[in-house]
Structures are given as C-alpha cells and as structure tokens.
C-alpha cells in the first residue's frame, strides 16, 4: 500500500473496486510526466451513489460534497493505474475540473467540488492543491450529481 493510500485509510477513505467505463474512452492518457484523467462520476461498484440535481440546501450541499469525494476516489483509482500501481509517484495535482448537476441559478458549485479538493489535499498534502474549475450543468452520465476530471504531474 502506498503512503497516499495509507493517508486516505487513516481518515476512513479507500479506493473503489474496479468498474467498466460508461462510454468509449480511455480512463487516462499519459504525455510524458503528465496524466490526463477522464471525468469520473460518483459511481461505486457499478452504482451511481448520488443522483439528480444538487439541492440548494445545507443537506443538498453536504450530499454534493460526498458525491464529489466519490468522484475523487475514482480518479485516484485510475491515477494509480496510470502510475503502474504506485500513487507515490505523483509530484502534484495540476488541475481539477468539476461539474455539478444543478438547476439554473445554483451558486454553490465551488462548495460542492470542495469535496473532491479535500480528498486530493488529504492524499497529497500541499502537492494536492490545484487550479480548478467548478461548473453547473443540466445533466451528467447516469443522472449523477457530480463529475470530476483531473490533470496530474508525476515525478521525473
């Protein structure tokens, strides 16, 4: 188990079991030391964990953040795959892109995507901080509440 996975385990988080992509795409693409991770929805063991638009309530925001955490764990699973099984090869997280299934006028997409950011910071410490986009959308695959993608740099 990598030091990254040990840090996650210490806060009660684990990487998901393997799953099949919902479409025709690669889960990641590597260009030198840069890994481009395809968007991951809040899916665990083949089941979408949070569906429909994120509500504009504290309970809705909390559920949205939990959905974003699941997305981040899925990204880490695919990142581990891209690193040949060794997450400790990560130098830093460059960027996250977050998509929140929501109604027009929803103003809290950044707060929802904080759930994913928190996972990357827990996993990589200061190297988990990243540039980020948080966008509201009208729908996502599987009617998921959240989808997140990432760009990560590996050590040379």
Short description:
The chain has 156 residues and is α+β, with helices and mostly antiparallel strands. The chain has 3 helices and 7 strands, in the order H-E-E-E-E-H-E-H-E-E.
List the helices and strands and how they pair.
Blueprint: H1 3-10, E1 28-31, E2 34-41, E3 43-44, E4 47-48, H2 58-82, E5 90-101, H3 109-124, E6 131-137, E7 146-154
Parallel strand pairs: 5-6
Antiparallel strand pairs: 1-2, 2-7, 3-4, 5-7
Helix pairs in contact: 1-3, 2-3
Description:
The protein is α+β, with helices and mostly antiparallel strands and 156 residues long. It has a single domain, classed as 2-Layer Sandwich (60s Ribosomal Protein L30, Chain: A), CATH 3.30.1330. Helices cover 31% and strands 28% of the residues. It has helices at residues 3-10, 58-82, 109-124, and strands at residues 28-31, 34-41, 43-44, 47-48, 90-101, 131-137, 146-154. The protein has a 5-stranded mixed β-sheet. Helix 1 crosses helix 3 (109-124) and helix 2 (58-82) crosses helix 3. The mean pLDDT is 96.
